[in-house]
Write a structure and sequence with these properties.
Elements (H helix, E strand, L loop, with lengths): L8 H5 L21 H7 L21 E2 L13 E2 L3 E5 L40 H7 L3 E3 L2 E2 L5 H10 L7 H10 L23 H4 L2 H7 L3 E7 L15 H9 L5 E6 L10 H17 L4 E6 L8 H5 L6 H4 L1 E2 L2 E2 L18 H6 L11 H26 L6 E6 L11 H4 L3 E4 L7 E3 L3 E2 L3 H10 L14 H5 L9 E6 L2 E6 L3 E5 L2 H7 L11 H4 L10 E5 L20
Parallel strand pairs: 3-8, 3-11, 4-13, 5-14, 6-7, 6-8
Antiparallel strand pairs: 1-2, 4-12, 9-10, 11-12, 15-16, 16-17, 17-18
Helix pairs in contact: 3-13, 9-13
Amino acid sequence: MAAPGVDAVAKYLGFVFSYVVLHACPLPTAVGMPEEVAECAVKEDWDDTAHCMSLLQSPHNKILPQHSNSVPGSAHIFREKPNIVLWLPDDMFMNEYSWWLQEDIAPPIPSNIPQQQNHVVHSSWVMPNLARIAQTGATFSRAHSTSSECTPSRYSIMTGRYPSRSRYGIHLTNEVFNPQKQLPFAYVHNKYSVLGKGYTDKQNTVAAKLRALGYTTGMTGKWHLTPAEEGGSYDWPYPKQTDSVKEAGFDFVDGLYIINLASFFHNLEWTLVEALRFMDNAMRSHKPFFLYFNPTPPHDPGVREALLATSASYDKLHETPGGTLSELPDVSRFCSSCTFAPRSEIWGRTANISSLSRVAACRSVLAALSWVDESLGALYDFLSERGALANTYIVMSTDHGFAKTTLYEPGTRVPLYAAGPSIVAGTVVDELVSHIDLAPTFLEWATGVASGRLAVDGQSWASLASGKASSLDRDGIYTEMDFDRAFLARNGIKHYNSSTNKMFGSMDIDISFAADMADFVGIAYPHLYDEKQVYNLSADPMEQVNLWNMMGQLPP
C-alpha cells in the first residue's frame, strides 16, 4: 500500500492544531477497524453500546492434562483456555533487543545523545532467561509503545486504546487547557492518561474482559494508572491503593507500587512472591489466569542501593507500601525448583561483563537487567514445575523507550517477545505492532477467535505470532506525547507533528509546563522543534533529514 504523501500528512495525523478554529480531526478510531466498531469506539456512553464490547465465548471445551508431579490443584485438568502472563519491567532500555538474531533490530541511536539520564547499555548475556524464553517463541522487530512516558503507554496496554482517549484525561484537559471549548482528546501525560473511577474505560480494561470470560486476574508491581485523589498516592492506606487497581478488573492485587517508588527501595522479591501466590491460588481454583507482572527495576533510582543495602539502610530494605517485612520473601515457598540469586550475587556478576561495568550508573543498569531477568526465570520455572507451560502464553515487553517525551524511534521502540501454545520457536515478526494490540491479542487467545467487536484501536497479532498471517490490515500506527502526534506508515515513512509548543503559545501557557525534549535527547535530532517532520526510516533510521519540504524525495 502506498504511503501517504506529504500533502496528506494532516489526514493521517489528524492533529494539526489551531486554537481558534480547532481543526482537530477525529481520533484514529477507524485505523484498521470496521465502520460499526469505529462508531462504537467514539461513543462516550459505553453502557449504551454494550454489544461493541461483547466477546464470543470460547467454542472449545476440551481439557488438557497437567504434569503428573504437580502440586495439589494443578494435578487436575484445566479447560483449554490458556493462561496469559504479561511481564513488563519498568524502563527496560535495551541497546540490543535480540542479540541472538543474526541482525540487530534495535533502532540506531545518534552518537550525541546525552547519557547522563539514560544509560543505554549492551545487554548481551545479561538476561539469559529472557533469551531462553524468547527464543522458544516470536520476536517482534518493529514493536512500539503508544507513548514515550510510563502512564500513557500503560493506559494503552490495559485498554487497547490510544492514551489521548483517556476519559479522565479528556475531562482534565478541558478543565486545565480549554474550559470554553471542549477538546475531543486528552493531553497525553503521566498525570492525564489515567483510568479514573466511574469512567467507562476503567470498566472496560483487558483484565475486566478476561474476568468476564472466566479468568481470574492478578496484578503485582508498578501500576501508575490511578489519579492521585482516588488512591494513586502513597498518602492513601495500602488497601485503598489496591482497591483502586481492582476497580480496573483485577481479582488479586498485592506487591503493589501504585506509582514510582518515591521513598521506597525496589523489592523485586516481594512483587515476585505475590505473583507466584496469585498463580498458585488460580491453579488451586482450577481457573485460567491473567497475570500482569510489573517489576519496578530497572527504573532509576535505587537499584544499587537495594542490591547493596548496608546496615544503615537495612530497615529501609524491608519497607514496602504494604508494610515492613520481617525478611525478604523466599520464592521457594511456592516453587521448589525456583531459584532467585541473592542480591549481592546479582551485583557481583555484573562486575566484568563489559567496560561499561566500570561506570557506576551503567553497572546499575546491568545489575537491574540481571535482577529482573531472575524474576522472569522464576515465573518460567514455576509454570514448568506446575506443568502449565504448554497452556500458557508469556509476553515480555517494557513500557517505552529511553528518549522520553519525544516520538523519535528510541522513545517508542520497545522489545516485544511472545511464547506460548500456538507460537513456533524462532519466529520473527517484522510487521508494525503497538501496545494497543496487546489487549485484542490476549482476548483472541482467550476466546479462540478474532473478534472485531471490541472498542479498541489495536488489532490482534495472534495470527502473526502463529505464522498464519504476515501482515495486519492497517496502514500504520500512531504514537502520542503531550499534544504531539506521529504516524508510522508500514513502508517506513514517518509523519511527526510537534504541536505542543504551538498549542501552548496559542493558549498563553508557559511551555515549561511540558518537559523539554532536549533534556533527554540534547542536540541529537536537528529538527527537534520543527512543527512538521517527515522521515524515511528505511534510508534515515536516525531521523536526521526532515523531508517535509523535500517532496521529491518521498517514495511513491
